[in-house]
Design brief:
Blueprint: H1 7-12, H2 17-20, H3 28-41, H4 46-52, H5 59-70, H6 81-94, H7 98-103, H8 110-130, H9 140-149, H10 156-162, E1 176-180, E2 183-187, H11 231-239, H12 244-251, E3 256-258, E4 261-263, H13 270-274, H14 286-292
Antiparallel strand pairs: 1-2, 3-4
Helix pairs in contact: 4-5, 6-9
The protein binds a DNA duplex (21 and 21 nucleotides) through helix 5 and helix 8.
Length: 304
DNA sequence: AACCTTGTCAACCGCGTTTTA
DNA sequence: GTAAAACGCGGTTGACAAGGT
């Protein structure tokens, strides 16, 4: 953490605009100013926010403070096991696209997830890579971690061949399961983000009505519904990933793989849903994701 | 008690992309 | 069409806390 810079320090230098900008930790007064301004006026141009709220901060700094700290919908505290698992799942899919991962974990920020990954998960993965994995270990996180660790660095293409659909989260509530070297990895479905509602059952591009031929019991609830009463279901969901082979067979028709590219038009209901000029696909860029799929960093926690 | 090491996390920086004038 | 401004993202830094020696 950085110490809040004293105003005196700033005043020592020339008085151009940049030197007037405060840096470092936010004081409670600044927080108050920003918070009350945002609650009164909502989000606008950030440099206007900074100016109008009477803050000697750049807009960028205000944006960051709001997003990472002041936003009322932020969840605080340690990550739950479910969240941890989801982060691992999504990281296996998306790599270091922290903002996209964060969009799927309500109340969490990209910065928070990034820090958590870099401090906790990465080290744990590193640790577990040192020790021989125990086949009897039962906790879901370690299973998943081991699953990821088994992917050997020379086999990304092999792994890719087993990924049914890296885009599945877009398609409403769906679950995909992949395997690499016979180690199951779940790709979790979209968890109810809202905002523009790209993923919600009523707003998603498939409106939740798409029939993917997937066992509905496999569908995970939105994260905010992952209360303790649902833990058993979540556990079950994770455990069922071990049946991935059958699952793969059942859903193989969903995505037609050809030369590492996926054709999504084979998804039942896709064509009708895909029409419309204003179609939004969340922050996903299908085309680039299709292209980028070969660069998914399945292995980026290795060899550091 | 003092020093060192490690972990955590808020905030900054630089860069690419998007929007606006 | 273009330049500038704003935005958003991922990587990195550095202060602080906690634990170890």
């Amino acid at each position: 953490m950085r110490k809040p810079e004293s105003s005196g320090k700033n005043n020592n230098n020339n008085m151009n605009n940049m030197s007037k900008m405060r840096k470092g930790l936010w004081s409670p007064e600044e927080d108050d100013k920003l918070m009350s301004y945002m609650l009164r006026n909502g989000q606008g141009c950030w440099s206007d926010v900074a100016r109008n709220a009477g803050l000697q901060r750049c807009g960028k700094s205000c944006r960051l403070r709001w997003i990472n700290y002041l936003r009322p919908d932020l969840k605080r505290g340690a990550f739950s096991t479910q969240e941890e698992d989801l982060i691992i799942h999504f990281h296996s899919l998306l790599g270091n696209r922290w903002s996209q991962i964060a969009a799927r974990l309500p109340g969490r920020t990209d910065n928070e997830i990034k820090n958590f990954w870099n401090s906790t998960i990465k080290k744990r993965l590193k640790k577990s890579s040192m020790s021989t994995p125990s086949p009897n270990a039962s906790d879901s996180s370690s299973d998943l971690i081991r699953g990821l660790m088994y992917m050997d660095s020379s086999s990304s293409s092999l792994a890719l061949n087993h990924v049914i659909d890296p885009l599945m989260p877009v398609f409403g509530s769906g679950l995909t399961v992949s395997s690499a070297h016979n180690v199951p990895t779940i790709f979790m479905p979209q968890i109810g983000m809202d905002g523009d509602g790209f993923y919600g059952s009523s707003h998603g591009i498939f409106g939740g009505d798409v029939n993917l031929g997937i066992d509905k019991d496999l569908f995970a609830p939105p994260l905010e519904n992952l209360s303790t009463e649902n833990n058993a279901k979540t556990e079950n969901l994770i455990n069922r990933s071990s049946n991935h082979t059958n699952f793969l067979n059942n859903t193989g028709s969903v995505i037609n793989h050809c030369n590492n590219s996926c054709k999504i038009e084979n998804i039942e209901g896709f064509e009708t849903c895909w029409q419309g000029e204003d179609l939004k696909v969340g922050e996903w860029d299908l085309e680039s994701l299709m292209r980028d799929v070969s660069s998914f960093p399945f292995l980026d926690f290795q060899g550091e």
